[in-house]
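Usage

Read records sequentially. Each one opens with the input sequence:
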Amino acid sequence: MARVILLNKPYGVLSQFTDKGTEGSPRETLSNYVKVPGVYPAGRLDRDSEGLMVLTDDGRLQARISHPKFKQPKTYLVQVEGAPSDEQIAQLRKGVELKDGMTRPAQVRLIPEPDLWPRNPPVRFRKSVPDSWLEIKITEGRNRQVRRMTAHVGLPCLRLVRWAIGTWTLDDIPPGEWRDV
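and closes with the structure output:
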């Protein structure tokens, strides 16, 4: 039977088990949080993004979760700079043209500020610029896709939390913690 682990990846952590990057001070990786041999991430999450990662020891399951052809929905809670207009939300829903091509249509809705853990370091706050929260559900996973989509329509991303992959969610998993499914 496949082992499946749900991890709430903290901000600043690489979504891999080793850091082959720059010399000097080592960066945190998944190995700082998950001490289970033989599991690997099904997909990636940028270092400056937080939230749900699925780890498994089953290669087929890993592919079903992460490969775009399976259209596995991923839900993100996104804090953006500015107050989204109906037109900006409609653009995201329709799909936007990025340098690597047109995105699939997304499910997007304006939401109240979610009850999330504090981020370390905190998101910059500017009195003169409002911020808003969106829930964005996509069925592909290009590099930094949600950030690029919101920036494309004039809504720079301040904080990005992946809340769900398919039916798996972050419910009751604090940052840096994980649970078996």
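Summary fields computed downstream for this record:
- DSSP finds three helices and eleven strands in the chain.
- Residues 86-94 form the longest helix (9 residues).
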